[in-house]
Amino acid sequence: MSQKNAQSANEEKLKRVAVGMTVAGVLLVLFLLIILIIQFVQIGVARAQTREYEKQEQYYKTENEKLEKNIDYYESEEGLYWLAIHQGWVSPRN
């Protein structure tokens, strides 16, 4: 009878170990799945930021080109003449 009790105790321990390992495996898989989801969200946020930065970069490039055209105009003789007249200078051409 003591052998039966010892055998049933060993079987109980094996069942507990098996259940514990199963729970640990499920928790590990769940943990890894949560990490995977978080990573996907972070990738999505990073891509959105990249698109926003690219839009801003394009905007500033366009603004820079406009300002360079203005600089070219105001450095020309016609632009300087216009600025002088606008500031109250009298034109010798008149």
Overview of this structure, please?
The protein is mostly helical. The chain is built from 2 helices and no strands. The mean pLDDT is 90.
Question: How far apart lie the N and C ends?
Answer: 128 Å
Gyration radius, in Å: 39 Å
The pLDDT mean sits at 90
Order of helices and strands: HH
Structural class: mainly alpha
Largest sheet: none
Low-confidence stretches: none
Helix content: over 70%
Number of helices: 2
Number of strands: 0
Strand content: under 5%
Quick one: overall form? rod-shaped
Summarize the helices and strands and which ones pair or pack.
Layout: H1 2-75, H2 77-86
What's the short story on this structure?
With 94 residues, this protein is mainly alpha-helical. The protein is 89% helix and 0% strand.
Features:
mainly alpha; 2 helices; 94 residues; single chain
